[in-house]
Design goal:
The protein is built from five helices and 60 strands. It is elongated. Strands 1, 2, 3, 5, 6, 8, 10, 12 and 14 form a nine-stranded mixed sheet that branches. A seven-stranded mixed sheet has the order 34-33-38-41-44-47-52, with no helix packed on it. The chain has a seven-stranded mixed sheet with strand order 35-36-39-42-45-50-53, with no helix packed on it. By secondary structure, the protein is mainly beta.
Length: about 675
């Protein structure tokens, strides 16, 4: 009665024998109804140890739904088939399951080699007659079994339930959800697995609602694909996994030889061991990291020596034995999003030296993880979380615990640190070198952020200059805020193009910015977006309280160019600039207006809604130092003609002048 005690919380009473349809059968009385007292007197077919009929019986059986016990004068409702009930009855050619049954016990039909068809009925659930559980080895060595109909109510099939059933041709299920709801005890609990013992296409076919399963589309009512669900499926070619699915069980698609397409799985956070191994889809993947949804499933292939792995942002789990025996792994970095690290994930990684764990709170982390030599590994953690790690014994076994170095640079709201600096976005197109002058390299990068008040790039390096080396065609966009925000000086250089686009400003500088420089032929394109009350292409800094402007814009060198545009009712295309070095070439007649500190048209109106182009090949510096401050605005305001003669205030006549040491056209 071991199976019964495990499957249902009931006690078994005595046994009795009764003749059913001319066949003498043994029954085991149950003390209570296993499903909550619906029936007063209940029993199982068989005593739990011995066959309930003569093993020499030949023919089929219609199993009863109730049986009269002459010993006590009571009629018992049959609730299922006990363990070993028909074990070894080789002449039993078929069986009809009766209503009110819900369970088929361990070894119930083991060795019934003459049974060809099994049909699990699906009945009205209000009648309490749906079989939900098939026990371990229930149909083991039923070598004659050809067709199985599981209906829609089976929820559990025990280990080896169909082991030794070598000639199954068709397995029918009512729908995919019913199939995905089944807990298979092991591979041989799944009757539709291909045993690879035959190439005959007539064997091991799974039929869903009468159609052979070839292209699988999981319904969005399914949240989990269970262990062994489609193991060794011989016909499956494609699978679409909806966003409702969060987990894929072990061996779920193992050895699906024809499975070449796997789509969807956007919200999968857990993938079991060997879930896709030896499927065509997996075999065709390039060596390297394999992600399925939000799970880093595993590293495929042989890892090269001295390897550094940075797991991408948003990853929720690391798969079981994901890096098993990856002896080349030296550095591993996990993002803060990881919630689970699979068992044996790092087993055999003997040369791991540095483990960067950016998880802020380590306490709820499921770290069923194996480090072969934890005492040789340095653990790098967020500075604010260092004490939390030191309070857990698991992490104290590392060689040392040190804080992760962070930099005052943000990309899409994420702070750049020593983990991601050499490949910020994970695509090899953006990197940061803090050791050689704070240099941000852009090589064909394209980023876009759609979060409120999150910029594309933010430099908080107040008092320091950020050098941005631009190569190729690059785009940085924020759909909710600024494309590029600076709180320290910025120098754009290189021979590439950088497009900065923001909902507010394309580029904006703060109080810590004294100069923005463009040189070496770089092409900077700044465009403000839809926010009318604070919009501009290129925006310097203006302190309203002090009535001062802080940012000098300097464009140097032939081929260097700034293009900038703000919407018509915004702040302007280029505005709030203390001074400008460069030549305004477009629109026609536009100049830098030193009174309005913006690029204006010939009438002194700040240009809005049009592209302003400023080039660097003809900038002129006079060398005359500013010495006089405007008493109203609180800034220098000195004018000279080209002969160097100082003028009394801003000239009225049009021409070329020197204003605060810069050449301007009025």
């Amino acid at each position: 009665m071991a199976f019964l005690a495990c499957a249902v919380n009931v006690k078994a009473g005595g046994t009795f024998t009764s003749t059913v349809n001319g066949v003498s059968m043994t029954f085991r009385i149950l003390d209570t109804d296993p499903l909550g007292g619906v029936f007063v007197y209940t029993a199982l077919i068989g005593d739990g140890t011995n066959p309930c009929i003569s093993v020499s019986y030949n023919g089929s059986l219609d199993l009863p739904f109730n049986v009269y016990n002459s010993s006590d004068g009571k009629t018992y409702t049959i609730r299922g088939i006990n363990n070993n009930a028909f074990k070894g009855c080789q002449g039993l050619s078929g069986v009809t399951f009766s209503k009110y049954m819900y369970i088929i016990g361990d070894n119930a039909f083991m060795g019934c080699s003459s049974i060809e068809t099994i049909t699990i009925p699906t009945n009205d659930p209000d009648l309490y007659n749906n079989i939900t559980t098939i026990g371990e080895s229930a149909f083991r060595n039923c070598s004659g079994l050809r067709i199985i109909d599981l209906g829609s109510t089976v929820k559990s099939i025990g280990s080896s339930a169909f082991s030794g059933c070598y000639y199954i041709q068709k397995v029918h299920i009512a729908n995919i959800k019913a199939w995905c709801d089944i807990d298979f005890g092991n591979e041989s609990a799944n009757p539709a697995r291909d045993l690879e013992s035959t190439v005959d296409e007539n064997f091991y076919n799974l039929y869903v609602a009468g159609q052979k399963l070839v292209n699988l589309s999981i319904p969005n009512t399914v949240t989990s694909i269970k262990d062994y669900a489609f193991v060794h499926n011989r016909n499956l070619k494609s699978v679409i996994i909806p966003s409702s699915v969060t987990s894929i069980g072990k061996y779920a698609f193992y050895k699906c030889k024809l499975l070449e397409t796997v789509r969807g799985a956007a919200n999968v956070t857990d993938v079991g061991v060997n879930a896709f191994i030896d499927s065509r889809w997996y075999n065709d993947l390039d060596d390297g990291l394999v992600y399925i949804g939000n799970c880093l499933y595993m590293y495929k292939g042989k890892m090269p020596a001295h390897k550094k792995i940075i797991v991408k942002d948003g990853t929720k789990s690391i798969g079981y034995d994901a890096f098993k025996d990856c002896v080349g792994l030296e550095v591993l970095a996990l993002p803060s999003s990881v919630e689970k690290i699979g068992y044996l994930a790092l087993d055999g990684c003997e040369y791991l030296t540095d483990f960067y764990c950016q998880i802020v709170d380590p306490d709820p982390l499921d770290y069923s993880i194996v480090f072969p030599s934890r005492e040789n590994v340095i653990l790098h953690v967020p500075e604010a979380s260092e004490s939390a790690y030191r309070q857990l014994s698991f992490w104290l076994r590392f060689k040392n615990i040190v804080p992760i170095i962070e930099y005052d640079l943000y990309v899409m709201g994420k702070k750049v640190n020593e983990v991601n600096a050499d490949d910020i976005q994970g695509d090899g197109k953006m990197s940061f070198d803090p050791t050689n002058g704070n240099v941000l390299y852009l090589n064909g990068a394209s980023i876009s952020v759609d979060e409120e008040q999150v910029t594309g790039i933010t430099s908080m390096m107040s008092g320091q200059e950020l050098v941005v080396v631009v190569n190729g065609d690059n785009t940085v966009e924020s759909k909710q805020w600024e494309g590029f925000r600076a709180r320290g000086d910025v120098h754009f250089k290189g021979n590439g193009t950088l497009r900065l686009k923001g909902y507010a400003w394309g580029f904006s500088s703060g109080s810590g910015v004294s100069k923005v420089t463009l040189s070496d032929g770089v092409h900077l394109i700044c465009e403000g977006g839809e926010r009318a009350d604070a919009n501009g292409g290129f925006c310097g800094f203006y302190n309203e309280r002090r009535h001062t402007w802080a940012t000098t814009l300097e464009i140097n060198g032939s081929g260097t160019m700034l293009e900038s545009k703000g919407i018509a009712d915004g702040n302007g295309s280029v505005h709030d600039i203390k001074s400008l070095k460069g030549t305004v070439t477009s629109p026609n007649g536009a100049v830098f207006n030193t009174t309005k500190h913006a690029v204006c048209d010939a009438n002194g109106n700040i240009i809005k809604g049009s592209w302003v182009i400023i080039k660097g090949e003809s900038g002129i510096t006079t060398g005359i130092e500013n010495s006089q401050r405007n008493s109203v605005k609180g800034q220098r305001d000195e004018w000279y003609d080209l002969s160097g003669r100082k003028l009394n205030g801003m000239p009225n006549a049009k021409g070329v002048y020197i204003h605060n040491g810069k050449t301007v056209i009025r």
